[in-house]
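A quick aside before the break. I want you to see a complete sequence-to-structure record at least once, exactly as it would be stored in a machine-readable document. Don't worry about memorizing anything.
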Amino acid sequence: MAEKKLWGGRFSESTDAFVEEFTESVSFDKELALYDIKGSLAHAKMLGKQGIIPKEDADKIVEGLLEIAKDIEEGKFQWKKELEDVHMNIEKALIEKIGDVGGKLHTGRSRNDQVVTAFRLYLKEQVNDIVNLLSELQRVLLKKSQEYLDVVMPAYTHLQRAQPIRVAHYFLAYLEMFQRDKERFEDNLKRIDMLPLGSGAVAGVDFPIDREFVAKELGFSQIMRNSIDATSSRDFALEFLSCGAICMANMSRFSEDMIIYSSTEFSFVELPDKLTTGSSIMPQKKNPDVLELIRGKTGRVYGNLISLLTTVKGLPLAYNRDLQEDKEPVFDTVKTLKGSIVGITKIVEGLKINKEKVQAAAGGFALATDLANYLAEKGLPFRQAHHIVGSIVGYLVNQGRELESITLQELKQFSNLFEEDALNLLSAYTVADRRKSFGGTAKQQIEEQIAFWEKKLFES
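That is the input. The structure line, written in tokens, reads:
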């Protein structure tokens, strides 16, 4: 005869093997094992403190849980699919280890508030790890911007050369993007850092529990006020997946840049050999596989968000078994996100800029805007100035020439407002350093931004 489930008192038949296989989650939610034990330790201590169970029973439960935690950490724990999930596996092992007193652990709680407590504890730790990884990526980007402060490159719009910028300005752009990612995750922590334990299955608990004690033991800053909401809401996980999707989008954009810039056609950057791969047939190849995989895995993280959004969109209050599907998308996003941040950090750290190549590309028609601005400064309406410089560009293109080759005499054919000083604008460095507005690419502005980030990232 099959062994009875811990919840099987009401049933006259053993669970069908299909149901056991289809409904089990221990194959993936064992990731929460140590967080589940952490929650159970706090709960057991509270039960003993409140006299809900004898103090000696609570102490025995704590001792047993610590032994199980050690077995799990050492890889000795035997997981059983027939026990459904991580929580029932641990509870069953506890009862086997310390006897029937182990069954008292579940007094005053439900798996509904137990599982979401472990899930929140897990996400708190993971989000803090992600924030720290993003900080390290920012520090590496800052160092790279300092290294290439005096190198100019073309900025692109529509993937067409637009205006010259300092390379440092480019790296600082991504540093800013990852700062917003960090802030999103830090804000997400406010919604994760809320204790659901003590809510029971849906309606609360009829034992004299002390939720404040449990919150303090587990390091939660807030206690969830509504038992229905506490057991059934997964918006904290949705928010995490959303933050993860946006962060992956930013890393995917950087990856795309590096893939393009490292191509032979651009040759702007050289990727570290140790972070690239070769071809099985073409010996000359140096493939940016890490960057391509980050770009590819971004779609998978988007899918995780859509998956959970779809799962929760039609759920009636309160808990439904559908919510078992909240774990795998989050686990996968955590793993993918952390790996991708480490990958980008290593790429940036070992990245080399081809100074001659990027500086040569920063000139040419990328300087045209400043000639138009020159005419505007002389009093010509900008739209007219724009048209005149556009004509100059067309004139030079037809002759196969770059903008730097134009003479003052030729400029005057298009407008008498051009003087000798207009030729000073035919330098990428001069043009870049004219952008002195706050947030611009002038060296002075970038140095101020670097000083700001040095203080923020290294002194805080």
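Two observations worth writing down. DSSP finds 18 helices and six strands in the chain. The two ends are 63 Å apart (CA to CA). We'll return to this after the break.
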